[in-house]
Write a structure and sequence with these properties.
Blueprint lengths: L1 E6 L2 E3 L5 E9 L7 E6 L6 E6 L5 E3 L7 E6 L4 E6 L8 E7 L3 E2 L3 E5 L2
Parallel strand pairs: 2-11
Antiparallel strand pairs: 1-3, 3-8, 4-5, 4-9, 5-6, 7-8, 9-10, 9-11
């Protein structure tokens, strides 16, 4: 069993930045896939960034160059640095572990 807890969401003005965190606990293998998805009101959940055991990260086209995924394996924590935020980034952001375990999400609202 793996538990995931996201944090770091909030209200930010367009052009601002936020850093999301996702702490994992439980029985974790040494290498694993984790990532971030988001879901805006009335829309399907969509991939934001996926990080794989080989170190590669896939980003959604809409966030490339603005968002950066990172991880601290010693802390079993992954991060999503979000810069130059836009109103269309408003959503609940979820982290996942191997697409099997999901956190409860953290709200990001970009508005002036």
């Amino acid at each position: 069993q793996v538990q995931l807890v996201e944090s770091g969401g909030g209200l930010v003005q367009p052009g601002g930045s936020l850093r999301l965190s996702c702490a994992a606990s439980g029985s974790l293998p040494r290498f694993y896939t984790m990532g971030w998805y988001r879901q805006a009101p009335g829309k399907q959940r969509e991939m934001v960034a996926d990080n794989f055991p080989d170190g590669t990260t896939n980003y959604a086209d809409s966030v490339k160059g603005r968002f950066t995924f990172s991880r601290d394996n010693a802390k079993n924590t992954v991060y999503l640095q979000m810069n130059n935020l836009k109103p269309e980034d408003t959503a609940v952001y979820y982290c996942h572990f191997r697409y099997t375990y999901w956190g409860r999400g953290t709200q990001v609202t970009v508005s002036s």
